[in-house]
Each structure stands twice: as structure tokens, then as C-alpha cells.
Amino acid sequence: MELQKYVPPLFLAFVAVAPCVAQDAAHTGHTAPPTAAPSENHDTMPGMDHSAHQTNAPGQTSPVLGHSAHTAMPGTPSPSALRDPHAYADGYDFSQFPMRHLEHARNFTLLQVERFEAQRADADTLFAYDAQASYGDPFERAVLKVEGEKADTNVDLLWRHAFAPFWDAQFGVRYEYADTKNWGGAALGVLGLAPYWFEVSAMAYLGEEGRSVLKLDAEYEVLLTQKWIAQPRVEANLYGKDDAQRTHGAGLSDMTLSVRIRYEIYRELAPYLGVEWQRRYGLTAEYARQAGLQGDALRGVAGIRIWF
Predict the structure, then answer these.
(1) Cα separation, 290 vs 108, whole angstroms
(2) What share of the chain is helix, strand, coil (3-state, %, to 5)?
(3) Is this prediction's pTM over 0.85?
(4) What is the pLDDT of residues 227-250, one digit of tens each?
(5) What contacts 72, CB < 8 A, 6 or more positions away?
(6) Taking CA 218 as the corner, what is the angle to CA 196 and CA 208, rounded to the nearest 5 degrees?
(7) Gap between the Cα atoms of 243 and 253, Å rounded
């Protein structure tokens, strides 16, 4: 039988182990207690209080299981010392190392030139720019924004306050420099990241002689590749009153649709090409025709985007 070939090795192993077991039993003077049979009493189920079975002397029981505590090895920290962080750091604390600041606790400066471009329509070429500098933390920031085209320049000095995730409130002052007439007023608005990753901004301006302006814009970034990015944008301007000197009519004055495709040499440096279409409405279109301009304008653009 197959079993017969295993008998000699098992017998030899038993002969080798049996003297050691007998010697250990003689040394201790007792044998292992028999295994207790499972009790039929439901009080022995898990969760009952076993404190009656803990017969170890006070101070020598495990805080959890009630078994005899092991003798501490030389050099082992006491239980109270184990709760001391110095026991694991060899006495070192953060005073020996430079502290790292959280990003929301730091002030930082950002200079961003969103657009610096030449626009070409028919035989006419003009330059446009949109830049801002800011200083502060992610929750509170001071912002200086400059934008314009030709000889018209708009300057905003704003305080930006984060009031919700991805949303900031802005308030401050605005001043517009123009060939026809300068204008200034108070500024108030919001900007942020709308659902589906649309970047939106709404700014209201109220200034001299009760004149008001509402500027709305939204843009979206489409990642064509890791380097090529398309950026469609829509912008609209609405005025509260007719202003013949500044060639604006009340209501919806103009709307601009554009798309720019940039190549990011670095994240901070990206040249771009694009196309822009602008349409004037109402009395604003009439003022443009009187000045020899068309109500609609289609322009090609080329520029660069920088931030640091």
C-alpha cells in the first residue's frame, strides 16, 4: 500500500520529538490543561463581559485582552512615553526645520497678458491688448487690469474676493481714456468657472451723469492636443443711455465672437492665430456708419499670450 512507505519516516520523527516533550513536562511539573468543550450558555458568545475570567494580578494584565503582560525589554519606552511624539523623533521637533507654508496662506504675484495682438481688417491694421496684474492670496487679491485698442484704453483697479468655490466677486473703480471723451465710474461684478468649464465674467459700471455699462464675456478652452489649444470667446456690451460723444447707443451696443488657436511653447508662452467677428447694433451701428465704418467687421488676428 501507498501508506506503508510513509510509516518509517513518521515513526522516526515521533521518536526524535517524544524525549523533548517528556523532558519539558517533567521540568514544568504539569501538563497542558484539556481543551474546554464549547459551552451551551449563550453568555459566552462574543461581546459578553469576560472580566470574571481575568485572574492576573493588578498592573500585570493586558489593557485589552486581560492576558499576562510581557516583561518590558531593556530600553523600551513606557506606555506613557509611547504617546509622546519625541519618543519617535529622537527629541527633534519642527523648530529644527523650516516650516512649509500652505498655498492659501501665502501672497503671490501674477502678471498675465491674455491678449497682445495685431488685428487686420481689409487694409486697416490695429493693435489690441488685454493684461492684468494681481497680488494677494487665492481668497483676497488686488487687481490692476488694462485693456484697449487703437487709442482707447480702459483701466480697472479692483479688489477680488472669493465667495464660493471657483467664484470671485470684484469691486473697485474704472476709468476709460478715449479720443472723444474720458469717463470714469464705480465697478462691481463677478467672475468664475461655470458648469462645463466655461469661464464667465459680468461687470457693471456706474459713473458720471448716471451713465452705466454692463460687460459680459464667456470663453472656453478646447484641448486639441497637449500643445494646441482652441479658445472660442463671446463678448457683449450694453449701455444704459445714448452717448453721442462716445458713439454708443442705449441697449445692446455690440457683440464680438472670436476663436484663437494657440501653441504653448511653454505654459507661460503661447503665440496664437485667430479670427474675430464684430457686429454693432442700433444707434451704435449708425454712429459707426457716420464715421465711415461698417456695422459688421471680420478681422484676422495674430498675437501672443504670456503669464508669469
Answers:
(1) 48
(2) 20, 50, 35
(3) no
(4) 999 999 999 999 999 988 888 899
(5) 78
(6) 145
(7) 11
